[in-house]
Amino acid sequence: MCVKLVKKNDNAVQCDGCDHWVHIRCADIDREGYKLLQLSKPEDKWYCSKCSSPCGICLKGVWGDDPAIECDSCKKWIHNRCSLVDDSHYDHIQATNCIWMCPNCDNGNLSNTWGLTAPQRENSFHALNPDSGNAHSIPSIDGKSSARRPSGKTALKKEVSIVSININGLRGKKLDLQTILSESNPDVVALQETKIDSTVTNTELIPPCLEYEIFRNDRTLRGGGTMLLIKNHLSPTQVNFIADGSESIWAKVSINGTWHYIASWYRDPDAHVEHISLLRDQLSKIMTSHRNSKLPCFHVLGDFNFSQIDWAHRLDKDSGNSVSNHSGKLLLDIINDFAADQLVKSPTRGNNTLDLVITNTPSQYTDVSTMDSPSDRAAIVCKLKCLFPNLKQPRRHITQYSKGDYATMRRDTRGFCIKYFNGGQDMRTVEENWQLIKSFLEKTVKANIPTKMTKSRKSLPWITDTIRRLVRRRNRLHAIFKKTGKADVRKRWVELRSKIKREVYTSHKNYINGMIGDIKVDAKPFWRYINGQKKDKHTIPPLKSNSKVAVSDMDKAQALNSQFSNVFSKTVFTTNPFFRSVCGKMPDITISTHGVEKLLHGLKPNKAMGPDNIHPWVLKEIATDFAPVLSHLFQQSLTNGRIPEDWKTAYVCPIYKKGDNTLPSNYRPVSLTCVCCKLLEHIIASNLMNHFEHNNLLATNQHAFRKLHSCETQLVSIIEDWASSLDNHKQIDAFILDFEKAFDTVPHELLKTKLHTWCV
């Protein structure tokens, strides 16, 4: 790799493909991986990057002895496990007359398999380590150890699980739906007849811990409504360009370079004859939008209410002839024209197949069946074969500030103050003093506050083991009833359904009551729960930026950063306007230790910390002992006109406002700055306002951001003026203005000029 000589004492490994020695630093192998390689068995092999090729799906190396296939079109090697090829299919693919479809580029090609002519050789792994006496027998560190070379496999899911339910009123069945989501954990859920409106939030219906992106099309009148729930790791995006008045909601996801359009559709039984033609228009728009690219896949899930069609034969159920109903014929024509198929053959309500799955990729579906649902009809369950990364939320360290040893921290802070005020505090720069303070705080927090690792919880806490067992038993009874149709089985199944409903309701009520506690003692948990139900938590979908779609987190961050930076005014004035000073010079700001201590005690411990990772809880607990150090730093910063570099940075959080959530322009930045920086800003702002108020520099009609002034005082003043004008028979003219992005677009040079005019 580096062409340098591999010496005897170097940490290196030998490739089983080309027999060359490679430094572990050149092979990107860390010390832990090197130890595992030393413990590998003789049959385990290692190959350098020149003897392996990255898999077109999982991007991991395809080694010389790995079962894999090369695509003639995209020239990518693909593991058998990544292309869903088992051993029997692999033997067939090795035949010269076999044509297979590449999952990376979707092109058909003649097969070629990796390593068919590779010579079989004995494992010749050696570690250039003087401690190893035998080249082929490396002593184990622990006799019981079974450590092996890491396989390097990426966690992949081989299928997308899909559920479609006519819920017939979601608000009253939300606990039943949550039980299904918690136990089955489907990737895509399509709901029809949700019967909700905009006053019902997503959080009220689906807990955020289930990790779904929610798309809704609520009916403005009574009844109806559709909804899509798609897992966040699929990065779904709502499709708005095909909105045409139908009762449907569309979203799209990209899997292995192919766009999959997913819809939840509802057709009212009394709908107009031509209503189903709206589906044709939607599919036409989808196909037209991909005219110059790879054709997309579509999956239409929903309740179409065509009871007269026998879907097993596509004939009229009553006569056995061709379908005579005009709407039914239109639907069959749509399915044929778009080379699609309808996959549900079994009844979903009584003897009628009302709920359908229409797709142009029927061969990729497996296990299309029905299961018990909270409504009066069965839910459709199916699986779509495809490969995508099974992304798991990484575990994080959580600092438990409520369990800190603050008595020890206060004692350490007093010792640090003595060290800080050693006579050299004024000789050090502002940055040096800040780094000294920051280093001490990080050290004492690490020593005195415990941490824990977060646990990913995708299940709902009120779904107990007892409920899970009952659900599994109910599903078994439902399956038996579908096969046998016995009345006694149906009776047991219905009774068990009712019992589960009662158990879930009771368990959920007990959980909420335990979380809220006694409202007479402490009402905060109650209002925290209520406010949490009223607010929706939005994840950021793929964003449209410069005619491209930003899908990865890095691309989204770049798109939002460009939007936020472009909004700020970049107006450059060659000559600033001149204004005569209107008052005396503002006195210098003097910072007292007592004032800083008061601010530290007033910090809210549950607020977020900034980029310096100094939590307000810690500052509040050590306020009395820490105030002298911080007040000196503040005064030094004002005197020298310098602030620490950490205070110039912030965590910028994009907050969705309204409109299309795929447009970066519909997000607003909220900056989380350092807590100490906020305290200094508060001190400066207070002194500025005192100067303005003392010299009567602010307009009397300005009610915002002033003491004893607010929107209420402004409304009282306006109503008084209007009432007086009406009493005196005078005309009233009112102009109401709202400036877009007002705080971001104000030229800072003009603000600085105005402050200079006001002798700041």
TrEMBL record:
Residues covered by the PHD-type domain: 1-54, 52-108
GO biological processes: DNA repair
Keyword Disulfide bond on entry: no
Transmembrane residue ranges: none
Q: Which UniProt keywords apply?
A: Metal-binding, Zinc, Zinc-finger
Q: Which InterPro entries match?
A: AP_endonuclease_F1_BS, DNA/RNA_pol_sf, Endo/exonu/phosph_ase_sf, Endo/exonuclease/phosphatase, RT_dom, Znf_FYVE_PHD, Znf_PHD, Znf_PHD-finger
One Pfam family per UniProt: RVT_1
What residue ranges carry the coiled-coil annotation?
none
Q: Does the keyword Hydrolase apply?
A: no
Task: Return the SMART domains for the record.
Answer: PHD
Looking at the record's lineage, which domain of life comes first?
Eukaryota
Which residue intervals make up region (Disordered)? 125-150
Q: Which GO terms describe its molecular function?
A: DNA binding; endonuclease activity; zinc ion binding
In Swiss-Prot or TrEMBL terms, this protein is called PHD-type domain-containing protein
